[in-house]
Amino acid sequence: MTRVLLRRRIVDVTSKVLMGAATVIGVFFLFWILWTTLKYGIAGMHWDLFTKDTPPPGTDGFGLRNAFVGSLILLGVSLAIGLPIGLMGGTWLAEYGFRSRIANAVRFINDIMLSAPSIEIGLFAYAIVVAPMGHFSAFSGSVALAVLMIPIIVRTTDEMLGLVSGDMREAAIALGAPTWIVITKVTWKAARAGILTGVLIGLARITGETAPLLFTALNNQFFSKNLFRPIANIPYVIFQFALSPYSNWQQMAWAAAFITVLFVLLLSMVARWFLGKVQVPR
Amino acid sequence: MRRMRGSYSGRLLGIAVLALTTAGVCAGADSMSTLTGAGSTWVYPLVAKWAAAYQSKTGIKINYQSIGSGGGIAQIKAGTVAFGASDMPLKPEDLKAAGLIQFPTAVAGAAMSYNLPGIESAKLLLTGPVIADIYLGKIKKWNDPAIEKLNSSLKLPDMNITVVHRSDGSGTTFTFTNYLSKVSPEWAQKVGSNTSVAWPVGVGGKGSEGVASYVQRIPGSIGYVEYAYILETHGSYARMINSAGKDVSPTLQGFQDASAHVDWTRAQDFYVILTNQPGPDTWPISGCTWQILRKNAPKEENMAVMKFFDWGFENGQQMAQSISFGPLPPSTVNAIKSYWKTELGYGL
Amino acid sequence: MTGSDSALPVEMRPMSEGPGVAGGKWRLAWGDFLFHKGAALAAFLAAAALFATVIAIAYDSRFSIRAFGIWRFLASSDWNPVTQTFGAFPFIIGTLVSSAIAMVLAVPLSFGVAVFIAEVAPAWIKRPVAGAIELLAAIPSIVYGLWGLLVFAPAFAEIEPWISGHLGAIPGVGALFQGPPMGVGMLTAGIVLAIMVLPYISSIMRDAFLIVPSSLRESAYALGATTWEVAWNVVLPYARSAVIGGIFLGLGRALGETMAVTFVIGNSNSLSSSLLMPSATIPSVLANEFTEATTPLYLSSLIYLGLVLIAITLIVQFFAVLLMRRLGRREGASS
Predict the structure, then answer these.
(1) Cα dihedral A241, A242, A247, A251 sign
(2) What DSSP designation does C235 have?
(3) Would you tell me which residues 72-111 of chain C have a C-beta closer than 8 angstroms to some C-beta of chain A?
(4) Is B321 exposed, middle or buried (CB count within 10 Å of its CB: 0-12, 13-18, 19+)?
(5) ipTM
(6) What is the per-residue pLDDT across B145-156, written as a single tens digit (0 to 9) for each?
(7) Partners for B (CB, 8 Å, 3+ pairs)?
(8) Please, what is the Cα angle at B69 between B68 and B75, to 5 degrees?
(9) Which residue from A60, A142, C108, C221 could staple onto A77, CB 3.0 to 4.6 Å apart?
(10) What pTM, to 2 d.p., does this model score?
């Protein structure tokens, strides 16, 4: 008996050490990459980044204002398209479709969309938005980004709603609440950490996406906020500037990368703060 | 709405609404004086620099994006841009079939960058056929007799050559492989020239940065890089023997000489490739970028593009030189202007 | 659920408090209908996007399909833009192998991280660590690419001689670890991919673990189970479906990852038996050659490659679904 106990304890301690080690490895790589970003990015940190537009090649100076504004517009529009569709789609799967054949088919398709290479989604947006409109536009970029974000939100919403225990739902239904109220007030609420993680993962994914913007939003060396014209954006600028021979451009690329990372960090912190203010019905 | 307050759904909805309004507010009207061009990555610095100066002078925004030459050709054909740019000229018959015209912008060059312990930049001398044999995998060691013969003063190490090439399709690759095809029949037959080719050996780096970083890091490596890149990053380069048999280093003058020996005025649709041109100071791996316009585009749009490039030809020479692009000689600029008139029926 | 009625959302309080019982019911019934249909429409749109994408991509690859057919394209290793012959075989292998390496590394790591955060770590360490791991997902893939090329690959090149010296000496698998230490190649790509998908897999696993009812967990502890036993025998089975879902989400990301892989895989279009040698994946070829594809057949062949990638993910997903069904059945039989 004691031998069994000892063995169980050894397994337990070993597993804890290994899990701790796995976490340390993950955190180690995070800090390594962040350190790299910081080291290269700090050289390009300059107030002008936020107040001036991208300088032409081979010209001194810093500026990313047009790209920051453009990226925010792209993110905002794609969130406005992607969040309702993704959240509602995932909710339908978990709350109405259940395990029905059609719901499983939608899940299956959605999982494939998760893996669709982003460059092809860009091509798709090119085919349905850019080509009919006859020119590149911020809107087409947002469509591509939304298409990338939707499956992530659908999947996590579905998964997380499915894990909410039935008791609370039943309690609410017993009180006479209609299904949609139960879903929005009880189920969504119970699964909100998961859903929000999904939204954040979705946002994080599209924040740094370069490939789908190549044929849609394109880029703009000037300041523009017109949804129906090419627009400057951070991922494209990072890509273009990092591979350029000009040292101020390279610095700006790293600074932009650093700010992007900070931006997403801030996003998740704000989300957590929001969540912290809501009572957890557990 | 009041009922939703404090609920999670309300908050999510709030985020969406906020996002939408932000976007909506931002999407104000933009000035109409914006033209979009796209294509060649190589010429991007030049057009972008001209565009910035042109905007501050005239208020007209020329937004040029480097999506690659292939993309430039495809987009001008699809009519999604006002002009496309390609490092690989279109054949006159292809232009005719697609209803396009093309004209050169400026000349530039590429050079071989290498990493050999103890051998500084510009010390190494190479010829086209030797480079071709290295890239074919036939010359495997740095102390190969073919290289030693050219560099008798150097102590070449017994080291494997690691060949580095561009992995992304690029005009630089086109220019480089076009040169190799001209100087090595075997290369022309086995590999040929294009914006990407089936490389017999080597590793591929993404962009000039990718190639340069491999070369910098792997001892015994060699790769081709745009000259502007070498200049900006203080990278190493090899001297070369040009078609006149002269030992030359890459310089702006060398690239311009490559175009000087071409009679642009007589070449139909400016279809001339600048590699391996004659002349004692000519740099052998020189290239050019062509701007492509649609004949049936709105007249005002074509006129605006022509005005911009004409302004660049006249006023942008200093700017071009500052980033290692060679401006076109006046005779060529005149040829371009009369080409516009004859092809489009209107011009400057 | 404690407290008075006021703790409940308005809609759940007894109806008599509302403005008018009948009117409220009518509105709520309509709300149900609209909500249901709206959700169904959203699900339909999400699914329709795939068909639209596949149709658009299949249509755009028509030249290449006509020229090379299916088997010749899949089995040929000849990718030559000059002669305009295109075959996908090396890229298919590159895609599968790099993702396989990533999953072999990332799945155990993610599981460890998720269990650590959900079950092992003391409360004060949970949040910062969870946040840190999630932050890995916040890093744009282009940054992974640049870090991989400029920082990780040179460091890895220092370790490679050791790898080829030790692992390369093992008969059989030794062939996988041969070659000059360049720092870039299939293995590097696999490692970078593993780091990239780690947060995706672990955060879904962790969220699934956290949602496991604490009553289950506590009863197991009360019976004297160790942390590991609770994690492995109670929490994991309960959350299995989500765990597998997380793994396949990660796999999907790995298969389709473009920018980071392009920077570190070395981009060679020829096959090599060694994992230390440069290789290429379908997305990396797309990213590399797409914009410079100058002929319709070339462009169409690249899009055809994209179609193959979608087919690969379809097949992977098919097996995933099969696997989950089987697990589900066994679960049903044993209880």
Answers:
(1) positive
(2) I
(3) 108-111
(4) middle
(5) 0.80
(6) 999 999 999 999
(7) A, C
(8) 90
(9) A142
(10) 0.81
